[in-house]
Amino acid sequence: DHLGTDHHCKIINAQDLLDVVPRLLDHQDEPFGDPSIIPTYLLSQFARKQVTVALGGDGG
Questions:
Q1: Is a pLDDT exceeding 80 seen at residue 47?
Q2: Are 40 and 23 in contact (CB under 8 A)?
Q3: How far apart are CA 14 and CA 38, in angstroms?
Q4: Which DSSP string do the residues of the chain spell out, in sequence order?
């Protein structure tokens, strides 16, 4: 409430994770070894319903 943000929740089950893997394989140019792509992809799909642009990245 202090920041005036609007929060949304989505419950993800095991089937959601299994369903997204074939789509992720189609989007990747090469094999990936980082399983964090699965929740990142699901989060991006969910956020797209409310957000036009979201920035993210890894430090390094």
A1: yes
A2: no
A3: 11
A4: -TT----------HHHHHHHHHHHHHH-SS----TTHHHHHHHHHHHHTT-S--------
Q: Which of 43, 47, 42, 50 is nearest to 18 (CA)?
A: 42
Lowest mean per-residue pLDDT among 7-11, 19-23, 24-28: 24-28
pTM of the model: 0.72
Domain boundaries, the chain: 1-60
Helix axes 14-27, 37-48, angle to 10 degrees: 90
50 in Cβ contact with 8 (< 8 Å) = yes
CA dist 5 and 21 (Å) reads 31
